[in-house]
Design a protein that fits this description.
GO molecular function: cullin family protein binding
Strand content: 25-35%
Domain BTB: 33-134
Order of helices and strands: HEEHHEHHHEHEEEH
CATH superfamily of the largest domain: Potassium Channel Kv1.1, Chain A
GO biological process, one term: proteasome-mediated ubiquitin-dependent protein catabolic process
InterPro entries: BTB/POZ_dom, SKP1/BTB/POZ_sf, T1-type_BTB
Number of strands: 7
Shape: rod-shaped
Distance between the termini: 116 Å
Structural class: alpha+beta
Protein name: KCD17 protein
């Protein structure tokens, strides 16, 4: 019996040896393709490839097991103590490169998470969006600029018809005839026109919107 046991042992050793040649451990960073993340109690399932779209991110470093000894729950999911509400948009951004938000989701909340996970391109996108919002909210009401033009009666219609975009006719003042051409009196007029100047918060004045321009042109033509 002794001899057989030895043989059995040798056989097993052989089999184990054989199996080891097939089970060469995968190179670092290419462990299982699927990764489970437990973010604040909500489990997300994604791939290593998705998480590593952004090489510098916390998520990429996490799933490559670099220097981050993260706790795991009983299912083996990485535990991350963050709000799961805002993690969806983060994960979707890594999947397809677009920021998609439900209308009631605050961009500031997603920005907070993007900064925590260190996802550079997403941080830039959200900051741009927030700046655009600020711009529309804090647009200063327009200032009016007035200009007075002096002209003669016969030049009046031409001047009115060739007024440049955005200028609006305000008032006409007859200042009487100032000089004679032979027998004909030339009546002189002062024509007052105004234009709206829009100031953006940055202090640069921008042109009025297309609508405002069209409106002032119509007013002018009436």
């Amino acid at each position: 019996g002794m001899r057989m046991r030895m043989e059995g042992g040798e056989e097993m050793q052989g089999a184990v040896g054989l199996r080891c040649t097939w089970d060469i451990p995968p190179p670092a960073g290419t462990q299982a393709k699927w990764v489970r993340l437990n973010v604040g109690g909500t489990v997300f399932l994604t791939t290593r490839q998705t998480l590593c779209r952004e090489q510098k991110s916390f998520l990429c470093r996490l799933c490559q097991g670099e220097e981050l000894q993260s706790d795991r729950d009983e299912t083996g999911a990485y535990l991350i103590d963050r709000d799961p509400t805002y993690f969806g948009p983060i994960l979707n951004f890594l999947r397809h490169g677009k920021l998609v938000l439900d209308k009631d989701m605050a961009e500031e909340g997603v920005l907070e998470e993007a900064e925590f996970y260190n996802i550079g391109p997403l941080i830039r996108i959200i900051k741009d969006r927030l700046e655009e919002k600020d711009y529309t909210v804090t647009q200063v009401p327009p200032k009016h600029v007035y200009r007075v033009l002096q002209c003669q009666e016969e030049e009046l219609t031409q001047m009115v018809s060739t007024m440049s975009d955005g200028w609006r006719f305000e008032q006409l003042v007859n200042i009487g005839s100032s000089y004679n051409y032979g027998n004909e009196d030339q009546t002189e007029f002062l024509c007052v026109v105004s234009k709206e100047l829009y100031n953006s918060p940055s202090g640069l004045s921008s042109e009025p919107s297309h609508k405002a321009k069209v409106r002032s042109t119509l007013l002018w033509r009436c």
